Amino acid sequence: MSDNPDRISFAGRLRNNFLTGLIICAPLAITIWLTFSFIRWADSWVKPYIPARYNPENYLNIAMPGLGMVIAILLITVIGFLGKNLIGRSIVSFGESVLHRMPLVRTVYKSLKQIFETVLKEQSTSFKKCGLIEFPSPGTWALVFISGDAKGEIAARLNDNGDELVSVFLAPTPVPTAGFLMFVPRSKIIMLDMTPEEGARLLISGGLLAPDYKPKVLQPTVVPKAVNPLPGT
Predict the structure, then answer these.
(1) From start to end of the chain, where are the E strands?
(2) Selected residue with higher pLDDT from 134 and 125
(3) Rounded to whole angstroms, how far apart are CA atoms 96 and 106?
(4) What's the rounded Cα separation, in Å, for the pair 85 and 27?
(5) Mean pLDDT along residues 23-27
(6) Which stretch, 63-72, 107-116, 192-201, 215-224, has highest mean pLDDT?
(7) Would you call 102 helix, strand, or coil by DSSP?
(8) What's the pLDDT score for residue 1?
């Protein structure tokens, strides 16, 4: 006995509609859940230290989600402003000198500070560009994130041929958080116009979510016409 084609078609359409709805709803629901979880986490850390007379919730008699996070952002901003002047730098230097005398704490502090300075430094060019390199064999291309120029001992030992080395991060699919740090000659990299965010989406989707690309059209050079000389000149 053969199956009814209409029943199979209806079941297939129902499955496709469910998968489409799942693709739409799941990222949205997870994003909302993560956002509110982070807000509640920040509030649980900050709100206990807010004096009762300065807490607006005591006067309005309503819960204000995100109040602790807003206060934390303002406090961090003020600390950053104060840390730029002479007195602030002196206080920070004194605090760091105390931490550097603690055997275990100084290792954790120095590591965390180096990570944050590398990621958040304004002059840093980390992961601001994407490129293509031939990997794992000639003729096969892989997407990489550009970290910057090679520095230190690696640059001194490998830049003998005059071609500058660039440090790139080769991420796997579909989890781009792990990968390989590679040093590639600049001439071997094809720079791309896509942003790192677009490159990450391309990797996570396995090549399905390719960003739109409009080739740059070179404007033709307009040659001015020769001006005819006036009669009698």
Answers:
(1) 129-134, 141-149, 165-170, 180-185, 190-192
(2) 134
(3) 9
(4) 43
(5) 82
(6) 192-201
(7) coil
(8) 46
Grouping H, G, I as helix, E, B as strand and the rest as coil, residue 19 is: helix
38: which DSSP letter?
H
The angle subtended at Cα 66 by Cα 64 and Cα 69, nearest 5°, is: 140
Both tokens assigned to 219: 């404007």
With bands split at pLDDT 50, 70 and 90, how would you rate the model's confidence at 122? Answer: very low
Number of neighbours of residue 203 by Cβ within 10 angstroms: 20
Token code pair at residue 172: 């796997």
Q: What pLDDT digit, counting tens, does each position of 133-178 carry?
A: 999 998 999 999 998 888 888 888 887 667 788 999 998 887 776 7
> From CA 210, how far away is CA 181, in angstroms rounded?
24
Domain ranges for the chain: 1-82, 91-124, 129-204
Q: Are 133 and 169 in contact (CB under 8 A)?
A: no
The residue length of the chain stands at: 233
Q: Which residues of 53-85 are buried (b: 16+ CB within 10 A; e: fewer)?
A: eeeeeeeeeeeeeebbbebeeeeeeeeeeeeee
Residue 5 preceded by cis peptide, ω within 30: no
Is residue 188 classed as helix, strand or coil in its secondary structure? Answer: helix
